Amino acid sequence: MKRSAIGVLIALLAFGAAASGTQAAEVKAAAPSAGAGAASEGRQLFTGGTTPSCAVCHSLRDAGATGNIGPDLDELKPDAARVASAVQKGFENMPAFGHVLSPAQIEAVARYVAGAAGK
Fold first, then answer.
1. Predicted pLDDT of residue 84
2. How does DSSP classify residue 22?
3. How far apart are CA 95 and CA 91, in angstroms?
4. With contact defined as beta carbons under 8 Å apart, do 71 and 79 qualify?
5. What is the DSSP pairing of strand 26-27 with strand 50-51?
6. pLDDT (tens digit per residue) in 25-47
């Protein structure tokens, strides 16, 4: 129940911000270091490259993330297509990031999560 209430609260806050003309989800300006691969970029995006970050809501051991609003990705073990779809369009209480992340960034975070989940 507590988890549902928090998720609903976050969704309402995100909707309110979107309705007021501001973006509920945004990309932070930090870029990965030169030569960093897609996994590094994906991890950076997951841990703090967006607002809110994925790590606020999701648990993922590899990222040191202990969020408990969304599903534990180590238990869920989603494939890259599932992650990409959720990031692009949103899912249940999760906001969509398709309007602020590039297709390459969505692919990077999807590959990172799919490769790191359950490891």
1. 97
2. S
3. 7
4. no
5. antiparallel
6. 444 434 433 334 667 899 999 99
Q: Could you write out the DSSP letters of every residue in 41-99? A: HHHHIIIIIEES-HHHH-EEGGGTEE--SS-BHHHH---HHHHHHHHHH-BTTBPP-TT
d(CA 7, CA 52): 13
Q: Residue 2's Cα: distance from chain center in Å?
A: 21
Q: Say what angle helices 103-116 and 80-89 make with each other, to 10 degrees.
A: 130
Give the other-Cβ count within 10 Å of 81's Cβ.
10
* Per-residue pLDDT tens digits for 54-82: 999 999 999 999 999 999 999 999 999 99
Tracing tokens 């297509």 back to the chain, one arrives at: 81
The pLDDT assigned to 38 comes to 62
The amino acid that residue 54 corresponds to is C
Burial class (CB in 10 A: 0-12, 13-18, 19+), 5: exposed
